[in-house]
Design brief:
The protein is mainly α. Helix content is 63%, strand content 0%.
């Protein structure tokens, strides 16, 4: 199991994130009005100690990828390097794009 650097596994992180977003998902499934969903989002952000942007990112990832979308993604820079090297055969630097 991969870790996020502080010993917590991806599954554990995803489960914790799911617990936070589940009240929002329930409200959305019940077709609650936008103001109620906004209130729930504010409460979740306060409980989780996260920004609204982070919560919305978790919701978006969950909608697109399901539970796996909530797993720790690593630093943005590491994801970019991984994505880039997947197209350049592992090369980085000046000759990578050739």
């Amino acid at each position: 199991m991969k870790s996020n650097g502080n010993g917590r596994g991806q599954e554990e992180i995803a489960l914790e994130r799911y617990k936070f977003i589940s009240p929002v998902l329930t409200a959305m499934d019940e077709k609650a009005d936008k103001s109620k969903i906004g209130l729930i989002k504010s409460e979740v952000c306060g409980q989780a100690g996260i920004s609204r942007k982070t919560l919305d990112r978790w919701l978006s990832r969950y909608a697109e990828y399901g539970f796996d979308g909530l797993k720790y993604q690593g630093p943005v820079g590491a994801r970019i390097v991984s994505w880039f090297t997947s197209f350049t055969g592992g090369k980085t630097g000046a000759g990578a794009a050739r």
